[in-house]
Amino acid sequence: MEILLKVLGAGGAAYAALLAGVFLLQGSLLYFPDMGRQMLRTPGDVGLDYETVWLTTEDDVRIEAWYIPAPAARGVALLAHGNAGNISHRVDYALLFHRLGYSLLLLEYRGYGRSEGKPSEAGTYADARAAWRHLVTERGFPPERIVLVGESLGGAVVARLAADERPGALVLASSFVSVPELAADLYPWLPARWLTRYRYDTLAALERVSCPVLIAHSPQDEIVPFHHGERLFAAVKGPKAFLELAGGHNDAFLFSREAWRVELGRFLEQHLPQGSVNPVPR
Fold first, then answer.
1. CB proximity list for 197: less than 8 A, separation 6 or greater
2. What pTM value is reported for the model?
3. What confidence score (pLDDT) does residue 246 get?
4. From residue 110, how far is each of 127, 147, 161 by CA, in Å?
5. Distance CA 158, CA 207 (A)
6. Quick one: DSSP state of residue 113?
7. Which sign does the torsion angle of CA 191, 193, 194, 196 carry?
8. Could you list the active site residues?
């Protein structure tokens, strides 16, 4: 009995240490800015003109973005990427939106790529607001001509922005309901919902969104389970569409590239104003 109690005590202590470590170090489990510090390529490498833009956030952090114009653009997309890599890993989005007739602003979070600062939940929201202000105020795009696009973690970022502003449309790719819900799926042996200090509550934001929403998700997603996409879709109150992708979390858009392009183009044509826009800086 004494040995058993010692074993149980040691196990309990180890489990408590694990919980403390997860609570204190969860930022390193959520953000991976070092996975892709190197800039791999630019839109110029795929034949697209682009401009490097340096934005200053409301809390005085300097962040990078790439602006890729499209001729006679129908509007502009603002992309918030996932929790790993940087904007140089998302150049294919520039090609996608260019072919659809939209300009694109690729946003780099604080602490990622060449941007200053350290990533945080409040910080990523501030980064997105700085990008929105740039498009509306400095470039003069009407809000109804702006498409907010978020992949994975970025979905929570732009959903919050869409809830606070009035974009023309919102596109969520492989996004999750919230960090506590995702953590509970990924770590079922931990009281994950109670341990998480980050919220990124995409579901709550969607309940305040009034613009049309496109949800894209794969049943084979091994990181963000498919039911997250289904729950997000169910929460949308206004016009909406769902695109079922194929493949894993990081390669679904490769497997579904043509279907993704066609469905996204159809969605934007249906819900955004037609004709080119001539933005006038304010």
1. 23, 26
2. 0.90
3. 86
4. 7, 22, 17
5. 13
6. T
7. positive
8. 152, 221, 249
Nearest to 102 by CA among 70, 141, 143, 126: 70
Separation CA 275–CA 269 (nearest Å): 10
Per-residue model confidence as pLDDT tens digits over 69-107: 999 999 999 999 999 899 999 999 999 999 999 999 999
Nearest C-alpha neighbor of 167 from the set 131, 200, 120: 131
Residue 214 near residue 243, CB atoms below 8 Å? yes
pLDDT attached to residue 3? 47
Q: What are phi and psi of 71, to 5 degrees?
A: -65, 135
What is the DSSP code string of 52-80? EEEEE-TTS-EEEEEEE--TT-SEEEEEE
Find all residues with CB under 8 Å of 54, minimum gap 6, and list them: 62, 63, 64, 65
Question: Look-up: residue for tokens 């941007």?
Answer: 115
At 135-176, the pLDDT tens digits run 999 999 999 999 999 999 999 999 999 999 999 999 999 999
Contact, 205 vs 160, CB < 8 A?
A: yes
Q: Is the pLDDT of residue 222 over 80?
A: yes
> Cα–Cα distance between 115 and 128 in angstroms, integer?
13
Is residue 36 scored above 60 in pLDDT? no
Tokens of 21: 């470590």
CB atoms within 10 A of CB 210: 13
- Asked whether 74 and 46 are in contact (CB, 8 A), the reply is no
How far apart, in whole angstroms, are the C-alpha atoms of residue 20 and residue 34?
Answer: 24
Distance between CA atoms of 3 and 164, rounded to whole angstroms? 58
- Domains belonging to the chain, first-starting first, are 31-271 (3.40.50.1820)
Neighbour count for residue 278 (Cβ, 10 Å): 8
